[in-house]
Amino acid sequence: MSTTGWVLLCAFSALLGLVLPRPRRRHPDRQGGPTDEATFLTLHIAAMAAPSLRAGLTHESARKAVRHLRTLLGTSAVAVADGGGLLAWDGAAGCHRDHAPEHARIVLASARPHVVTGEAPACDAPGCATRGGVVVPLTVDGRVVGTLAAYDAVVSVALVRTVTEVARWVSGQLELAEVDSSRRRTMEAEMRALRAQMSPHFVYNALTTIASFVRTDPERARELLVEFADFNRYALRRARDFTTLAEELHCVDRYLLLERARFGDRLRFTLRVAPEVLSVSVPFLCLQPLVENAVKHGVAAAGRRGEVRVVVSDAGAEAHISVQDDGLGMPPERARGLLDGSVPPPGEEGGIGLAGVDVRFRQIYGEDYGLIVESAPDAGTTVRLRVPKLHPANSYL
């Protein structure tokens, strides 16, 4: 193993807690020493390998990560395998490549590290100095999903310990990949639930309204049918987790046009949007349920003329959105119950509701980004939410 490799091993061991040096006070003008350089290099290499590992244990991710892992370990060769065989190999000792799957099977069967010594790794290739190896299991949720193997001229105690710690770090990245995958599956399930929960009464009422115009105003019926198709194309499409605020507002506009055809002059609506926030990423179908709630439990329940106002403003690092109606309103304690799910909306027929949107926003952006409901009897209801413009979750768009 090269001198640089030993320095990297020591640095990685220190970062993982095997050796934790006491911080030393340095003069501000003094340049960092070899330890600082090794620490930086170790972190840099780990950072380069991490994105590939966060994709899970596949041929592609292993191929991208194995070169960085060999640099990190400083050994002559590194192999990554799973139950299906060798995923990736990096190193000069290609003559040992065919032995790696056999070594991996031993570890996969025992779920324990395995040291390859003696005659096992020997070969007749000229100039091959590899005479040993360390094979360590990679685990996710206690399950062995693969192996990490490092091959070199000498197998020392330090190498065994360091390969074990690197495997722990790789396993941690694979755990995060599993969490990411679980999160995506959860959000996909939520999307399917959202589509399934689109109020059947809205669909029925919209089609009934359109049918009422077929004889009296065929052109109006045709226009409404196009609006209904446009709304459903967006709401029922195979969507990603996020969309732009412009697309979400377009869906809201189509929904309100259909409801206006149903309620006539009883429903007035206003959309006021700051143009600079139209490109902001938002969770798919996050506004339409709030507007539907305002129409159904605000205007329709009041039995008189009412107005729904949607205001989207630019607030620097965030976009602020409010959905307001001038309907019957409710006591503050009932508003709180709507959010925590303890109080179902009156006449709820399976719609998405405020609680679903509130939970999604808290899961995606954090507890500080839940809905705020302001209401009082005979004073209407206002629902407010904030969307951060720059957030890691928005990268799913």
UniProtKB/TrEMBL annotation:
Q: Does the keyword Disulfide bond apply?
A: no
- Extract the signal peptide range: none
GO-annotated molecular function: kinase activity
Q: Which residues form the Histidine kinase domain?
A: 287-391
Looking up Pfam families in the UniProt record yields: GAF, HATPase_c, His_kinase
Q: Which UniProt keywords apply?
A: Kinase, Transferase
The record ties this protein, via SUPFAM superfamilies, to:
ATPase domain of HSP90 chaperone/DNA topoisomerase II/histidine kinase, GAF domain-like
This chain's protein is named Histidine kinase
